[in-house]
UniProtKB/TrEMBL annotation:
<dbReference type="GO" id="GO:0005813">
    <property type="term" value="C:centrosome"/>
</dbReference>
<dbReference type="GO" id="GO:0019005">
    <property type="term" value="C:SCF ubiquitin ligase complex"/>
</dbReference>
<dbReference type="GO" id="GO:0051301">
    <property type="term" value="P:cell division"/>
</dbReference>
<keyword id="KW-0498">Mitosis</keyword>
<keyword id="KW-0833">Ubl conjugation pathway</keyword>
<keyword id="KW-0677">Repeat</keyword>
<comment type="pathway">
    <text>Protein modification; protein ubiquitination.</text>
</comment>
<comment type="subunit">
    <text>Part of the SCF (SKP1-CUL1-F-box) E3 ubiquitin-protein ligase complex SCF(FBXL7) composed of CUL1, SKP1, RBX1 and FBXL7. Interacts with AURKA; interaction takes place during mitosis but not in interphase. Interacts with BIRC5; this interaction allows BIRC5 to be polyubiquitinated by the SCF(FBXL7) E3 ubiquitin-protein ligase complex.</text>
</comment>
<keyword id="KW-0131">Cell cycle</keyword>
<protein>
    <recommendedName>
        <fullName>F-box/LRR-repeat protein 7</fullName>
    </recommendedName>
</protein>
<dbReference type="InterPro" id="IPR032675">
    <property type="entry name" value="LRR_dom_sf"/>
</dbReference>
<dbReference type="Pfam" id="PF25372">
    <property type="entry name" value="DUF7885"/>
</dbReference>
<keyword id="KW-0132">Cell division</keyword>
<keyword id="KW-0206">Cytoskeleton</keyword>
<keyword id="KW-0963">Cytoplasm</keyword>
<dbReference type="GO" id="GO:0031146">
    <property type="term" value="P:SCF-dependent proteasomal ubiquitin-dependent protein catabolic process"/>
</dbReference>
<feature type="region of interest" description="Disordered">
    <location>
        <begin position="1"/>
        <end position="38"/>
    </location>
</feature>
């Protein structure tokens, strides 16, 4: 009883997650997502914990059999907490309203390592305000357990709330705000400055983010803690359209520990930005510059400086990359496992040959929409890359059934083959199916099924 008396007597309502009239709020049931379209503002409310029993005068006294505990109530606390750990944020708030025991269990700090809020109808700003306030009550002004915050698909303005998160959650390690276009540079600066343990940052679709750096105050006051460096290892800036070479230079200079970097559709990035990147970030294992139309063979020469550390590379639809750039990658990045070169129309059989002979541990290759790649290139792949598991040849006009048969006869571990819009016979597809039992074939031949 003394332990219960120490706990706060308030809990956020599920209205933080769903408006009261949303489909997910009807009949006391709710789905694990919150993507329903509802008009009106979501209201944040605070409720007292449920009473231990119902006291309405119209309710009949339960029989002796009915007074017995339900099966789920017989479970010990640690089992209940394990069950609750699989629930999303909105469902966990609902569970807190069932009874006093569930209330105490639902607010166990171990269940609040992650907050996930998704959907356009959520009042994210208010939900984060109330949740962080509740989580900080046992340890005033600081939430030591919260490590992950995921917000996506909301069109409001959570930018002002990111400072609250950063200030209250110094142990934050992962922040995802994908699709929240109102996030600004200043909001990102606050988070990375106040959360020295932040390792995973996803700002994909945040079109206002042009740079990642420490605030001026943090650069002066926290230099012994940060060393003017940011500990981020995973950074996704997909669709950050206004990111330029100078911004990438600042990011690279501050985030020297990067191992995963995704710059898909950052259309203003050029080879110069990649040169800055390779000066500071020498530990990158995965890199995507797909749809960066200004990246050329010179950029590939810079990326090749990563040498054997590079395992994943996406250069899809980079039309300025040719066999020359592929030769740079193949020569120095011998441990490459994944390459996406779809739409790089300058790649020919010569580039595929050099790649196959030098990157023999290649497991996934996408050379779709490369019209100059033919059966000759496939033969080099088949004779050198025996561990190939995924191969996409979509819309490769020069590929025939003969090249597919050579691949199938040598790459027995093939699990996915895409030959959509390729002129290959049914017999060739059946040959692949016989030799690669686990292979899923994506095709456009109506005679093969």
């Amino acid at each position: 009883d003394s332990d219960l008396s120490m706990r706060t007597l308030s809990t956020p309502s599920p209205a933080l997650i769903f408006p009261p009239n949303s489909p997910g709020f009807q009949n006391g049931r709710g789905s694990s997502t919150s993507s329903s379209s509802v008009t009106g503002e979501t209201v944040a409310m605070v409720h007292s914990p449920p009473p231990t029993r119902l006291t309405h005068p119209l309710i009949r006294l339960a029989s002796k059999h009915q007074k017995e505990q339900a099966n789920i109530d017989r479970l010990p606390d640690h089992s209940m907490i394990q069950i609750f750990s699989f629930l999303p944020t909105n469902q966990l708030c609902r569970c807190a309203r069932v009874c006093r025991r569930w209330y105490n269990l639902a607010w166990d700090p171990r269940l609040w390592r992650t907050i996930r809020l998704t959907g356009e109808t959520i009042n994210v700003d208010r939900a984060l305000k109330v949740l962080t306030r509740r989580l900080c009550q046992d340890t005033p002004n600081v939430c030591l357990m919260l490590e992950t915050v995921i917000v996506s698909g909301w069109r409001g303005g959570p930018s002002k709330r990111t400072f609250t998160i950063a200030q209250c959650c110094p142990e934050l390690r992962r922040l995802e705000v994908s699709g929240c276009y109102n996030i600004s540079n200043e909001a990102v600066f606050d988070v990375v400055s106040l959360c020295p343990n932040l390792e995973h940052l996803d700002v994909s679709g945040c079109s206002k983010v042009t740079c990642i750096s420490l605030t001026r105050e943090a650069s002066i006051k926290l230099s012994p803690l940060h060393g003017k460096q940011i500990s981020i290892r995973y950074l996704d800036m997909t669709d950050c359209f206004v990111l330029e070479d100078e911004g990438l230079h600042t990011i690279a200079a501050h985030c020297t520990q990067l191992t995963h970097l995704y710059l898909r559709r950052c259309v203003r990035i050029t080879d110069e930005g990649l040169r800055y990147l390779m000066i500071y970030c020498t530990s990158i294992k995965e890199l995507s510059v797909s749809d960066c139309r200004f990246v050329s063979d010179f950029g590939m020469r810079e990326i090749a400086k990563l040498e054997s550390r590079l395992r994943y590379l996406s250069i899809a639809h980079c039309g300025r990359i040719t066999d020359v750039g592929i030769r740079y990658i193949a020569k120095y990045c011998s441990k490459l496992r994944y390459l996406n070169a779809r739409g790089c129309e300058g790649i020919t059989d010569h580039g595929v040959e050099y790649l196959a002979k030098n990157c023999t541990k290649l497991k996934s290759l996408d050379i779709g929409k490369c019209p100059l790649v033919s059966d000759t290139g496939l033969e080099f792949l088949a004779l050198n890359c025996f561990n190939l598991k995924r191969l996409s040849l979509k819309s490769c006009e020069s590929i025939t059934g003969q090249g597919l048969q050579i691949v199938a006869a040598n790459c027995f571990d093939l699990q996915m083959l895409n030959v959509q819009d390729c002129e290959v016979s049914v017999d060739a597809l059946r040959f692949v199916k016989r030799h690669c039992k686990r292979c899923i074939i994506e095709h456009t031949n109506p005679a093969f099924f």
